[in-house]
Amino acid sequence: MSLEKVPVLTELERAVLNEVQNNFPIAQEPFRELGRKFGLSEEEVLAMLKRFKEAGYIRRLGAIFDSRKLGYVSTLCAAKVSEEKMEEVCRYINGLIEVTHNYLREHEYNMWFTVIAHSRERIEEIIKELETRFGLEVLNLPAKRFFKIKVNFDFLGGSA
Amino acid sequence: MLTELDKAIIRELQGDLPLVPRPYAAVARKLNIDEDLLLEKIRWMKEQGMIRRLGAAIRHREAGFTANAMVVWHVKEEEAEEVGKKLAACPEVTHCYQRPEFPGWPYNLYTMIHGQTREECEAMAKRLSELVGVSDYRILYSTRELKKSSMQYYVENGD
To answer: Is the dihedral of CA B18, A3, B83, A139 positive or negative?
Structure first.
């Protein structure tokens, strides 16, 4: 996974993007610290990150939590949704605060979404509601084993 | 057990830190606590593994990772752990889970791969398949991202 083909980013910008994803300092002046690693001033780092944000590369700056460690449970669901029901179902599912990701995929099971909730019961409730309200067939696919969860992207090429 | 302050901190950190010289001071002011206490709490949450990562969340589509493919594998239950670990060890695999199978849906290992083109994803999947010796797999490309958000913890009442 490398971004070598994206011409708009310089080598330095890629390095900063990588660092700000993975090692954002927990310190009073995090941008000054970041800059120190690259020979950039605090102002230069802030300006660069503002640019990344405006360009849409950065969605937000903050923490990603481990839902299990916070006592939440999660699952992946797959549903077969017909063309006619698509808009209505999509609006309903996307409106649920517990649904964080929803993708259309090329398969008979075409809608794939993740649910994070405070209990298994709440997840069951959501699925049951989808089944009764829209007559959907929903596969509930909670992870049995976690082998890898990597939430950063490598902008430098090679492995992160 | 998390305190009300911990939950308030989590609520702030799942949002967007301001791009100002002292972002933590800005958050601390909102929470009416010391900047140092906030930094200490964040370090603790990271040590505990509650915070998996602190930093920028990337919109990978805009950043050039255009083809997001879920590759699902049909693996014998007794081989699932070994194959899962092997797949997880590959740098191109970002997520790897074992999930239950269903009648008509035999796939039990799930991996996410990201590439700039479908051809790149196909080549990756083929390479992975040869590496782990599993030939029954499917690539499910995403054709549309309908929703992508960060989970909002502790926002429901009484939670």
So the answer is: positive
C-alpha span between B76 and B31 (Å, rounded):
51
Separation of alpha carbons A74 and A117, rounded Å: 6
What's this model's pTM, rounded to 2 decimal places? 0.80
User: Does residue A39 belong to any structural domain of this protein?
Assistant: yes
Provide the residue ranges of all domains of chain B, joining segments of one domain with +: 4-47, 67-141
Q: What is the ipTM of this complex?
A: 0.82
User: B87–A147: do the CB atoms touch at under 8 Å?
Assistant: yes
Q: Choose the closest CB to B150 out of A28, A100, A141.
A: A100
Contacts of B150 in chain A (CB under 8 A): 60, 62, 64, 100
Mutate to test the interface with B, among A116, A147, A151, A159 (most CBs of B within 10 A): A147
Report the CATH number at residue A132.
3.30.70.3460
Block means of pLDDT (10 residues each) for chain A, 160 residues, are 57 92 94 97 97 91 93 95 96 96 93 95 97 95 91 54
CATH of domain B67-141: 3.30.70.3460
* B126, two tokens: 């083929």
